[in-house]
């Protein structure tokens, strides 16, 4: 599904160069919940931002379903971004819009017919088990509920890939578990490929089937979660 080949990302600035991603090679399969773990500064965010082309690599290739996403023209890139949802640690919801408005906004941008939007929003809220919160504003929701809204928004355009950047890092353990259970459930139901980055080993253990561990831009360990965490 996603093949990353010899990927490098160099940041240059006045205070010096940082090779944030160094010779990374990964193969992420269609039904993976793939974890990328590492300490702060390891290069996880840079890698996930390269995956949806919020950053351009210095060298290397990223193939998604066989297509080199670095060669996409504007139209292809727009289409690719629609098919790649993303969720974040701090949810990134619009505070001035209610739950319905936050999800509808993603559909409007993607060019959905106005008449189809209300039923699609309802469908998405059912998917994340938040039907009764359509008219609530983000400030009236718990962290777990906000992340459910963000997940509904990320799934609005039926993406194939869901990228998660520390999506449970701001949540308590019980809420973390409920969000991870939801992601697992959605992966099965929708056939999603999920790539999640986290600094929490428990997150990888509880939800991922495969994982890579990054350190100073490099992948230092990669494989099935059972193998990575087995005690020899
Ligand atoms: P992580 O997500 O694992 O915490 P990052 O990908 O954010 O790691 O950062 C990897 C390295 O790249 C760090 O040394 C960080 O300081 C550096 N870095 C990240 N973004 C930039 C940027 N826009 N400009 C310069 N350096 C950056
Ligand atoms: P979850 O486990 O889903 O994150 P919580 O147990 O934290 O939910 O919240 C329980 C209830 O309290 C929710 O129905 C939510 O609407 C309400 N609630 C949580 N935080 C706030 C808040 N800041 N303002 C208003 N209501 C809140």
TrEMBL record:
The keyword Acyltransferase does not apply. It comes from the Bacteria. GO terms for cellular component: plasma membrane. Residues 2-232 form the ABC transporter domain. One of its GO terms (biological process) is amino acid transport. GO terms for molecular function: ATP binding; ATP hydrolysis activity. Keywords: Amino-acid transport, ATP-binding, Cell membrane, Membrane, Nucleotide-binding, Translocase, Transport. Belongs to the ABC transporter superfamily. This is ABC transporter related protein. It comes from Ilyobacter polytropus (strain ATCC 51220 / DSM 2926 / LMG 16218 / CuHBu1).
